[in-house]
Each structure stands twice: as structure tokens, then as C-alpha cells.
Design a protein that fits this description.
By secondary structure, the chain is an alpha+beta fold. The protein has one domain: Outer membrane efflux proteins (OEP), CATH 1.20.1600. The chain is built from nine helices and six strands; from the N terminus they run H-H-H-E-E-E-E-H-H-H-H-E-E-H-H. Strands 1-4-5-6 form a four-stranded antiparallel sheet. The chain has a two-stranded antiparallel sheet with strand order 2-3. Helix 3 packs antiparallel against helix 4.
Amino acid sequence: MRPFRRIFYIALLWTVQLVFAQTQGAARSGPISLDEAIRLAEANEPTFAAALAEGHATALERKDARAALLPSASYHNQYLFTQSNGTQAATTQGGVNQSLPVFIANNAVHEYYSQGSANETIGLAQVGAVRLADANAARAEAELEVARRGLVQTVVGLYYGSGAADEKLAVAQRALDEATRFLDLTTKRENAREAAHAEVVKARLGTEQRERELEDAKLAAAKARLELGVLLFSDPSMSYSLVPLGSPPVLPDRPSVEAAAKANNPEIRSALAGIQVSRAEALNARAALLPDLALNFTYGIDAPEFAKHGPDGARNLGYSAGATLDIPVWDWLTSERKVKEANLRTQAAKATLTNAQRKLIANLAEFYDEADVARRQLASLDASVTDARESLRLTNLRYVNGEGTVLDVVDAQNTLISAENAQADGVVRFETALAQLETLTGRL
């Protein structure tokens, strides 16, 4: 029976692995969009995961601080045995003689505790703890958004950088094809005694240069894919494709961008939360100078026998209540120094807030101007590519007709390669600047 069970478990495990592999393959079979890349990075990036965990932890701490304002209840059960001292005495409950314990601090040789207790402490420290927990939770939430936006900017740069590397790889391949075609043309012209051997040598040098450039382009594309794959997948070498870049989006107007950035900026929220943290710490420091009132109510038994009534019928079940007021008198000025420390941190937090506001203004102007210039240059880059292609075509015709030189053709090829690479870099520049702007405004 056991061999059949083992075979069944092996088959089940193999089936689960096969289904999982098929599911994973199906999930990554299509091209990856920017939004999906951001989602995958959020699931895998450790810094963002740490910020996310800190946000959840501070939210739980806030609940704990609020729960501390409410009364707590406990049920205490204990049996205490103490050695007898060899004498007996009448108890206060009916005069029954019982052995006396050897320790005078204990009440009886056999003592039973079974009590329910409710406790409540009223003081400024509890209120300060709630404010501190709220401020820490707010700051952790803002820091989580800061980490998310930083991750988004990283993913955007790698995503469009990988796309540009693939485009440059295609440019290098087309350049090699063009150089190979031109080498074949010069070789045929030499064989027909229409061109000198120097032209063939020059064309061959150009082809060899294009081959090296193609190898470099392949290496750069592979590096870009690996860098992006590290953020997206558990296996960075996994094969994947990206969604082709469409037409560049329209740049939003500046007033709407400024309004959105000022209304939804995590750096400013974090700085504001830092001020609230410092103020809450100051409140906690001042609370140490004020008294605390502790209330207690206990109901149950504390008797030599575990019963509602003693042997003489005395009642063991009862209650007690207490109120304790602790008034601080002297702590060697520790509380006063803590108040000063909190006030100093508050001033530093205000300076951080002011710096965050200045940084927001500067980043708004910088990112918007960068995106605006890059957007306007895209049309110029497209026109340059079109003109470079037409120039290469006309130069090739002039060379075939004997009106141009091999240097003219090589120069036209280099111009086209430079224009196409600049076009790819221009798209990356605009998309990156736009992503920085949308991240600053919270739209991405």
C-alpha cells in the first residue's frame, strides 16, 4: 500500500509544479506595461516592503495606544502554600483554630486566590501616547508614499531605458545591414572597374565598425533588461518583452500640475507629521510632571479554602476598590530636560518642513521645464531622422552615379545613426521627465 501512496504523492507534486509553471508562464507571456512593471516592483523591492511593513506596524501601535485609554480586565487564579510554624490560632472568621504560616507576610498555610480585576489609569501620559502613535502612523504613511514614488521613478527610468536600448539595438542592426549593402556595392563597382580599391577598404572598415557597435548595443540591451528584471522577477534572466512605446502623451498645463503637487506631496506630509511627533513627545515629557490617577476594582475570593463560604459559614466571596494618586515630586530635572529636548526637535522638524516646501517649488519648476523642452524637441528629432534618411538615400544615388564619394556615404550613414539614437534618447528623456512630474503630483 505504501508504494502506491508514494507514487500518488509524487504524481500530485508533479501536477502542482506543472500547473504552477504554466500559470507563471501564462502570466508573463505577453508584453509588460509600465503599470504592470510598477506593480511587480512593489511586490519584490525590499526597501518598499520595509516601508510597507513599517506602515502596518505603526497602524497597529496606534490601535494599542488608543486601547490603553480603556479599562483593562484580568482574571487572577493562584494557590499559595506556606509551611506551618507548628502553632494554631483562632481565625477572625468564627474563631476556628488553624495552623499559622511560618512566614508572617502570608495569611494562611493554604491560601486561594480567584479574583477578577478591572484597572484604569487616568493621566496626560496616555493622551500623549495616543497623539504620538497617531503622528508616527501619519509619518510612516507619508514615508511609504515617498518610498513608492522613489520606486516608481526607478522603474520608469529602467523601463524606458530598456526600451531605448532595444531601439538602439534595432538602429545598430539597420546600420550594419546598410554598411553590408554598401560594402557589396563598392565591391561590385571595383570589380566593374568603376571604383578604387580604397573605397572598398573604407566600406569594409565601416562594416567592421558597425559590427562592433551592434555587439555593444546587444550588451547594453541585455544589461538594461537585467537591471529591470532584478526589480520585477525572482529570476532576473527571465525572458520578457515590453509594450512598444506609443505616441508621446500631451503635457498637462502648469497650473493644474502645481495645484496637484501642492495638495498631494508626501515629503511635506512627512515633515508635518515629524512636527506632530515632536509635539507629542513634548506632551509626554510634560505629562511626567503631572499626577496619574489609578483606579482598581477587584471581585473574587482570597481565603484559606476555595469556596464561597468558610467552614463557619463566613462569606469568602467579595470585592474591593482602590484609587491611587501618584504625584511626582523630584526626578533631578529629568522631565524638564526631556521637554527641552522635544522642543529642540520641534524646531528641527519645522526646518525640515520649510526645506521640503522649497524643494517642492524647485522640483516643480525643474521637472516641468525639462518635460516641456523634451516634448518640444521630439518633433525636431523626428524631422532630423527623416532628413537623415533622405540624405543617405540621395547620397547613395549620387555615389552610384559617380557624383559622390565613399566618404560622403559614410558620413551620411553616421548622421542617420546619430539621429536615430538621439531620437530614442529624446523619447526616454521626455517619458522620464513626465513620469517625475506625474510622480510629484501623485498621478503615477
